[in-house]
Amino acid sequence: MARPLRITFPGAFYHITSRGNEQKNIFKSNFDRDKFLEYFESAAFRYDAIIHGYCLMDNHYHVLLETPSGNLSQIMRHINGAYTTYFNVKRKRSGHLFQGRYKAILVDIDEYAKELSRYIHLNPVRANISDTPGDYDWSSYPYYIGKKKPPKWLYRDFILGYFGKNTTSAQKGYKSFVERLLKDTYESPLAKVVSSTILGGSDFIEYIKKHYLSGAKTDKDIPALKELSKKVSLEEIFTEVETNFTNEQGIERNLKIYLSQKYSGKNLQEIAKHFGIGASGISQASRRFSEILRKDRRLMKQVEKIEKKLNLSIMKT
To answer: How far is CA 125 from CA 155, 159, 192, 303, in A?
Structure first.
């Protein structure tokens, strides 16, 4: 089985899903559900987990989870592992309860927190279990709208903060935000996930790739890492440069060299063949152009536009 890519760092925010093995139920009673929520509580107090929202269905669960200490695996090992032990002991069984590894999607919290919380809270409605999310007792939604007193381990302030500073008005605003889609079909925000791993805009994805994946080696057992490590072809780079610098041949050639070294994934010898110079000439030209960029802000902005297009090209492949 292919391994999922785990991108972990302090302050990371995830949408987590974990399903029952062979699609079987992981909750068979309300006592099971209460017990499971106890592990959310202990994860919050023992492992510094921040639970922003959740929904427990019969054979799976969703949770919006933040990791201030960058310890996702420790948190999830506690939640799923402790619950599996409880479930197996209670029912005198052994073996896996959950289907393989949990699915953790790294999320740009500022862009998708609201949408994901709504998606999670509408799960029981989409599954025809309840008419409204407020009627379902096993999600964080009743706490979000003030129907129940929230547990200390549930952190609502971040998402409710988008709907006002006053708690009562924020709860009303959030309720309206969620329930306006009760009768409408809408695209799941998870449809925009890149490489089954990251949910966010192009700037967020590029930031994650640059700061947390730039030194990672491609692993055939982690398909997502290979996808995120895809490079742009020399032809794409040349075309983009020629489109934007048609009358500036000196800049055009050096920019091609600079971007080829940065984005193509080819070594210096391979790039050198396209320009009829030695590998050391490629390295020197790229370094000189980098120095020019630092001094020329207008040129820097032009190059950044090209880089954004190249990054979008990578994400579409």
So the answer is: 23, 21, 22, 47
Q: Which CATH number fits domain 231-316: 1.10.150.240, 3.90.1150.10, 1.10.1750.10, 3.30.230.10?
A: 1.10.1750.10
Summarize pLDDT for 9-19 with one digit per residue, the tens.
899 999 999 99
pTM for the model stands at 0.70
| Average pLDDT rounded to a whole number, residues 281-289 | 85
Strands 103-107 and 60-67: unpaired
At 247, the pLDDT band (50, 70, 90 cuts) reads low
Instruction: Please state, in angstroms and rounded to a whole number, the distance separating the CA atoms of residues 152 and 171.
Output: 17
What is the chain's Cα-based Rg?
24
Superfamily name and number for 12-203: Transposase IS200-like (3.30.70.1290)
Scanning 48-186, the segments in alpha helix (DSSP H) are 72-91, 109-121, 123-126, 141-144, 157-160, 167-179
